[in-house]
Each structure stands twice: as C-alpha cells, then as structure tokens.
C-alpha cells in the first residue's frame, strides 16, 4: 500500500486488513488470497459462524485471522467493529467491502422495501464501513480501500434496477473517496465483477424462477465464454490492496470475462 510517507506502516507481512462480507463466496476467497501474503485479517460478516469458519481456515493454513460479527446496516455496529479491530490488532491498513445482496426486478416489481434494502446492503454498508475506517487508515499513515461494485454498476441489466443503481453508487462513492482522501495517503479503488460462481448467483437464479444450470449457461454468454470464479475477483483485490498498485487510485477494475464490452 502506498502513502506520502515511506516507512510509516509495516510490511505486507504485518499489515491489518478488514474484509466485510468475509464469510461469503467472494469475501472468503479474498481472505484466502490475502492470507497468502501473511496479512492479519479481520473477517467480518453478519453471519458470525461463517466468519469463524473462514478465520479458522486461514489460521489452519498458517495465517492470522479473527472473526467479527457485524450488521453493516447499523452505523453504531460498524463504528464498534472498527474500534474492535483496531483495539485487537493495533492499527488498520486496508479495507475491502464485499458484503452485498441482490433483489431482481424492474421498478414495478420491486417494493419500496426492496429498494431500501438493496441500497442498505450494497451502498449504505460501503459508506458506513469506509466512513468508520478512514480515520484509522489515516492514523496508520495511509492505506488502501477496495470496494466491490459490479459490471451492472457500469452498464445496466434487465430486471435489476435497484442493484444497478446501488452498485453505480459504489463506483462513484469510491472515486469521490479517492479524491477526498489522497492527501492522507489513502487510495480507493473498485473491482467490478461479472457473474461469479457463488451462493448469491445461485440465489439469483432461484429469484427469477430459473434452473441454476440454465441460468449459469446464459451468464457464460460473454467473450471468455464462462462465468468467473471467486479467486479471480480476489486476485484483483489483492493487487489493488498491495504495493504493486501504489500509483493506482480512483480506478475501476472490471473482472467480468469481457461482459461489459
């Protein structure tokens, strides 16, 4: 990670990174990839048991990780999460916001509750986590934020109005943070995945009343001819959190097999 003052943070071996939604498909893959670099991981998830399983897996492989439960829709819970992470590990050097959900439907099919819930899960959660993390990143001399948006935050998809709008908000929020917090040595970048083989993609098929195999086959209709795997998104996150991307901020890295092309 990069900042204006060299030597103000530890090496990648002892950096501390918080991953929200760390118990899910992409989140757990991010944790596994970051553990390869011996990063100390705070694995946060609404499902604390899922967070515990991922933390145990990382520790079993020789890494260092601790689970944290948090409802990312509650500002006080998010503030408490960040305080707990810093109290436990002494600092925060990176944040990856993975937590999110999808509710399929056009605007006539979505209720106002669906709309609000989509924004709470996909955009408000990012705002709250970043808002709570920025002061700690600045105190550590700088750091990196990586948000997870979507190809549908860049180009609209059918029957996904709330999701598209919320993920577009994630893109703009990330770029605004890149402008605002660069003087503190904080980089903010965004990964925009396409369809990825996760539980959320399977739930999406069920929402639409589609057979999973058929839904996956249609999702594979893109230049590379397949859907993505969680570790491929995690590789992009690892790059944007690491020193290799020290001159990158405000970027949107699309990892979608060419789907938005």
From TrEMBL:
Family listed: Belongs to the short-chain dehydrogenases/reductases (SDR) family.
Species in which this protein is naturally found: Streptomyces xanthochromogenes
Any Pfam family hit: adh_short_C2
Superkingdom of origin organism: Bacteria
Protein name: Short-chain dehydrogenase
Residue ranges constituting the Ketoreductase domain according to the UniProt record: 15-230
UniProt xrefs under Gene3D superfamilies: NAD(P)-binding Rossmann-like Domain
């Amino acid at each position: 990670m990069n900042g204006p003052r060299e030597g103000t943070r530890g090496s990648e071996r002892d950096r501390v990174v918080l991953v929200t939604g760390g118990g899910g498909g992409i989140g757990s893959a991010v944790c596994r990839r970051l553990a390869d670099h011996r990063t100390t991981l705070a694995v946060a998830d609404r499902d604390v048991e899922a967070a515990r399983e991922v933390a145990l897996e990382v520790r079993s492989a020789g890494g260092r990780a601790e689970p944290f439960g948090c409802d990312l829709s509650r500002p006080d819970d998010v503030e408490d999460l960040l305080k707990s992470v810093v109290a436990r590990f002494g600092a925060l050097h990176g944040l990856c916001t993975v937590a999110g959900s999808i509710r399929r439907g056009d605007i006539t099919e979505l209720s106002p509750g669906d709309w609000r819930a989509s924004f709470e899960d996909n955009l408000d959660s990012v705002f709250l986590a970043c808002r709570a993390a920025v002061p700690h990143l600045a105190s550590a001399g700088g750091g990196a934020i990586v948000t997870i948006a979507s190809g549908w935050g860049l180009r609209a998809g059918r029957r996904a109005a709330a999701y598209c709008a919320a993920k577009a908000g994630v893109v703009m929020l990330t770029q605004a943070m890149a402008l605002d917090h660069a003087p503190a040595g904080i980089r903010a970048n965004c990964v925009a995945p396409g369809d990825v083989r996760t539980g959320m993609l399977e739930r999406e098929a069920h929402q639409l009343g589609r057979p999973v195999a058929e839904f996956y086959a249609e999702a594979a209709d893109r230049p590379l001819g397949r859907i993505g795997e969680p570790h491929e998104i995690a590789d992009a996150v690892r790059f944007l959190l690491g020193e290799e991307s020290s001159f990158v901020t405000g970027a949107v890295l699309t990892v979608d097999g060419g789907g938005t092309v």
